[in-house]
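ok so i was messing around last nite and threw this chain in just to see what happens. nothing serious, just curious
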Amino acid sequence: MEIQMKLNGKPVSGHVADDTSLLTFVRDQGCLSVKCGCETSCCGLCTVFLDDVPVLSCSVPAARAQGRNVTTLEGLREEAYDFAGFIADQGADQCGFCNPGTVMNAIALFRENPDPTEEEVREYLAGNLCRCSGYEGQQRGIMRFLEWRKSQ
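result:
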């Protein structure tokens, strides 16, 4: 099946099998920030925006993106730039594998709720797994970013 979509604002097309995931398709297009961590919709590493809504691309058939807008971290570099530095400053990038999914979901949270409480941040990011830093660094980085943003 032939599909067409906008990927990070640019039109792309390709032939996909019926069982091709959106994760596989966007990685084949060079969007390597989208990672495969579990293939069971449990880890958040494969988060992309489908028409500005965060989805787990490992569980979305690529065909469902036909004619739609898909955004990966590569397409959100400017929006993510300052924020990602706050995570790194808190030591939450030990291996860095979970960071793209965490950043994507944090951006979705900031768009939905520009001033979340610490508890709201924890709840929103509960589906993002980090195997090496225990989430505390990400949480501190997010809260410090929000404080910094208020002061700007």
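not much to say yet. The radius of gyration is 15 Å.
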